[in-house]
Amino acid sequence: MKNNYFLILLCCFSIILSEPALAGIASQPVVSNINAFLPARVFYFDVIQQNGKDLLKWEATANSDLTQFQIEYSTDNIHFLAVDSIYPKLVSSDAASYEFYSPYMITGTRYYRLKLIYNNGDFEYTPVVSMDDAINNRVIVSYLNTKQFQLTIPYFLHSINILNASGQVLIRYTDVPAGTQIINMNNFAAGIYWIQCLSSKNEVLKIMNG
Known about the structure:
about 210 residues; mainly beta; Immunoglobulin-like; 2 domains; four-stranded antiparallel sheet; 1 helix; globular
């Protein structure tokens, strides 16, 4: 009887020892980089033509895990070539602004995307943006200084309206031919304004008056 009781105690003791070990193995987390950290967030990504080149502009949140923005270029939206890389800005604000002039100016449609590369080897892509000389014939705004802006206009405009943040029209130009138009904002306070270009198609541009 004593021997049987000893055997029962020995079995129970073995189970108590083995359960934590088994439980420890089962509870080991599966190592995965997917959703392992909060990815950087690109709020805005677009391409415009400025000074005869494709200008890529984007805004993204700061993230300590992000190592670089890799700019990629394509002519068929299938095969992309890495053009250059930009390191993220270490800023305390919610988002930082970036600009990059593409060295490629091939006639026809050009496609761009950003590859966000993280320090653990993960990466993700932004949606693709494109520039086509034939169909993206757009009004371009250039900053001459903090109070003066130049519009490069590729087609006739019925009117150009300068609006404040409340939508009030402050300046209006009518029957504007193709060419350039200087916008003088010396008499207006610093802040965000909108340039409304009206013709057979309507374009709205944002400017920051200094």
